[in-house]
């Protein structure tokens, strides 16, 4: 994901430096940056980069941090609180889409943050995001992305059950997937599974990423004392150990 994002930023004329999670190198680059974009795998890595190291401490007042990784809203809250002490703005902007969307500038960004900060970052975010959906306060982007992914995981879970039911009725999965794409049951989840050829193939290709987001969804619900209801039954089969 990072490679096409960087390519789009460079093509737009931005001066970009790409680094891994090495603390010393991150601090060196952050000290000179107007905007630091974080795009790592999970909540643990975001906390490692943003809270456990010296990255925030080295960022200049007036600079901004953009977190693209899907994480708990509480993680964004902790980062924003720490950043405020140094006059650094924080925007959470989890993405919907893949590397191919980043390469064409068509990632969907769910953006949470102050109006003036998001407006200032538009020339950066707009390089690889379209639409850039400002859903208002800090943390709102993560909340919306978690709901988006909960619904998407629900689609995949329901589709898996329908495939099993279809096979009991004598309908091969390939026949079912090809035909359902033309009926009222069509969905983004169905389209993606059909492109992979089966629910199992889709899970093998994408399960790790969806699974870790499902873990965050269930964790946040537990922290808030929320009952996911029937949704929990549908998504519980998407295991974080599955490889997507």
User: Could you spell the SSE succession in H and E letters?
Assistant: HHEHHEHEEHEHEHHHHH
Q: Determine the strand fraction and express it as a percent band.
A: 5-15%
CATH superfamily of the largest domain: NAD(P)-binding Rossmann-like Domain
By CATH, the architecture of the largest domain is named 3-Layer(aba) Sandwich
The rounded Rg comes to 19 Å
Strand order of the largest sheet: 1-2-3
Helix content class:
55-70%
Find the structural class using helix and strand composition: mainly alpha
The total strand number stands at 6
Properties at a glance:
elongated; mainly alpha; 10% strand; three-stranded mixed sheet; Rossmann fold; three-stranded parallel sheet
What's the short story on this structure?
The protein is 57% helix and 10% strand.
Write the layout of secondary structure elements.
Layout: H1 2-11, H2 23-30, E1 35-38, H3 43-52, H4 55-58, E2 64-67, H5 73-84, E3 89-92, E4 95-96, H6 99-103, E5 107-111, H7 115-125, E6 129-134, H8 140-168, H9 173-180, H10 188-196, H11 199-224, H12 230-235
Parallel strand pairs: 1-2, 2-3, 5-6
Antiparallel strand pairs: 4-5
């Amino acid at each position: 994901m990072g490679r096409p994002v960087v390519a789009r930023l460079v093509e737009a004329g931005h001066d970009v430096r790409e680094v891994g999670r090495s603390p010393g190198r991150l601090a060196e680059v952050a000290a000179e940056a107007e905007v630091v974009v974080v795009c790592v795998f999970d909540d643990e890595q975001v906390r490692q980069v943003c809270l456990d190291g010296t990255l925030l401490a080295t960022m200049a007042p007036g600079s901004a941090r953009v977190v693209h990784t899907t994480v708990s809203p509480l993680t964004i809250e902790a980062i924003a609180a720490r950043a405020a002490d140094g006059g650094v703005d924080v925007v959470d902007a989890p993405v919907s889409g893949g590397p191919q969307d980043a390469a064409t500038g068509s990632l969907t960004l769910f953006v949470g943050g102050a109006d003036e900060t998001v407006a200032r970052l538009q020339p950066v975010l707009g390089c690889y995001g379209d639409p850039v959906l400002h859903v208002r306060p800090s943390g709102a982007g993560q909340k919306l992305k978690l709901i988006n992914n909960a619904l998407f995981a629900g689609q995949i879970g329901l589709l898996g059950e329908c495939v099993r039911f279809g096979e009991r009725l004598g309908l091969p999965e390939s026949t079912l997937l090809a035909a359902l794409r033309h009926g009222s049951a069509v969905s983004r989840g169905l389209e993606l599974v059909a492109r992979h050829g089966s629910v199992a193939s889709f899970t093998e290709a994408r399960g790790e990423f969806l699974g870790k987001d499902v873990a965050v969804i269930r964790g946040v619900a537990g922290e808030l004392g929320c009952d996911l209801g029937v949704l929990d039954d549908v998504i519980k089969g998407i295991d974080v150990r599955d490889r997507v």
